[in-house]
Amino acid sequence: KKKIKMKPKEMFSVALRLVSFSVMSRLILIIMSSLFAYCINDYDISTSIYPLNSSVRPIIKILFGHLIKWDAIFFMRIAEQGYEFEHFHAFYPLLPTTIHFIAKGLQSIFSSLSFSECLIISGVLVSNISFIISTLLVWRITLNFFPKIAFKSALLFCMNPASIFMSA
After folding, report:
1. Which residues contact 103 (CB under 8 A, 6 or more apart)?
2. What does the pLDDT look like over 69-87, one tens digit per residue?
């Protein structure tokens, strides 16, 4: 097989297009899921495990509250309280620790935000930045093996219907 070589300037241009596309896909996903969560009753009652307390502003609840589902409930609880229960040890500490420290940083910058609000915002930021990095990694790895479809595979990764799990 003949490998397709890209110049650094071309690589940067493609990477910038992918970052832009993945950011737009995340914004569209958050807006659409917020609208759907607001209009349609939720069948998943697992969010009652991690209640959004009264210190969380309604706009943050509407925009991001519906993303605290599935494993995100446990990661948020660990980021807030630490490993309280034995079954929490199934979740590795890197994500909750990162969320915790970014929330502390956000709270020191934006003192009007409660710690719960900072945790939610930092959790969404960390998850979505990780998704954007993953998009670039999918493109780079695919570029090594299937260079003709590398860009398309990264775009499809962004449009994957299951990508909501990567933002929660």
Report:
1. 79, 115, 118, 119, 121, 122
2. 778 888 888 888 888 888 7
Q: Could you tell me the sign of the dihedral formed by the alpha carbons of 94, 97, 100, 106, in that order?
A: negative
- pTM of this prediction? 0.85
> Considering just the CA atoms, what is the radius of gyration of the chain in Å?
18
> Residue 47 has what pLDDT?
54
